[in-house]
Amino acid sequence: MPRLGFGVWQVPDAEAEQVVATALPAGYRSIDTASVYGNEAGTGRALAAAGVPREELFVTTKLWNGPSRRWGRDEVLRAFDDSLDRLGLDRIDLYLIHWPRPMRDDFVRIWKTFEEIAASGRARAVGVSNFRPVDLERLAAESGLVPAVNQIELHPLFPQPELRALHARHGIATEAWSPLGQGKELLTLPAVGAVAAKHGRSAAQVVLRWHLQLGTIAIPKSVTPARIRENTEIFDFALDAEDLAALDALGRGPAARRIGPDPAVFDV
Fold it and tell me: Is 252 exposed, middle or buried (0-12, 13-18, 19+ CB in 10 A)?
């Protein structure tokens, strides 16, 4: 799985086709979508038209295990097949449970069907998204298959050290959604600006470099061609210990907080 991917959250289907078509020539090979995003079809059209060999691509999508239905085996398999159809693919590289929704007490049952999907080879790997330590520990106790990935909110203002440590103990890769935070807040903080100025880089580039050196997989999103390309230019410089300490300190500062929903209570 590439260390840097391209996300299409909140990108309309028609626009997703255009931005993915921009991202692939810029060098991205990992594309992250989800059924609830409503843009699997546009993403799939861009992948088909790009001319990039399938074996070079890493495509992630997610099961939207929302409260509108009971998620039994048949429902999960049907949702997986629908995602494959929309993407125009015969297999997915990574399939994720989008949210744990612990109040519904069904993610272990869903995971059992994910085990079946993985065994079939139609998903090269399966994982989870937004799972808390308690959710991962329950999967470990009730399943023999460890999630390959947990995709979580992670950025310098919310670095989640305890969850990352648990991932490391269990061999779970950490993938960051909203790796640049949301809006301009993180990227306009003086500490980020100082590190960016020191290296002659953009604020986004130094934050993405922080992710790489932290060991996380990052999936930034942009619809602007120049920023799509700029976000790939993070492999030819390194942050030193002082830079890392300055960015790490943001997670203990007054602006530190979760930006997205709390997985303990999210059930939309």
Answer: exposed
pTM exceeding the 0.85 threshold for the entire prediction = yes
Residues 6+ apart with CB under 8 A from 136: 128, 147, 150, 166, 170, 172
What residues are annotated to the active site? Answer: 37
Tell me phi and psi for residue 174, to 5 degrees. Answer: -95, 125
Q: Do the beta carbons of residue 120 and residue 143 sit within 8 Å?
A: no
Q: What is the pLDDT of residues 42-74, one digit of tens each?
A: 999 999 999 999 999 999 999 999 988 899 999
Q: State residue 182 phi and psi, 5-degree precision.
A: -130, 140
Please list, in sequence order, all residues whose beta carbon lies within 8 angstroms of the beta carbon of residue 9, skipping any fewer than 6 positions away: 32, 34, 37, 177, 221
Nearest Cα residue to 139 out of 107, 166, 165, 172: 107
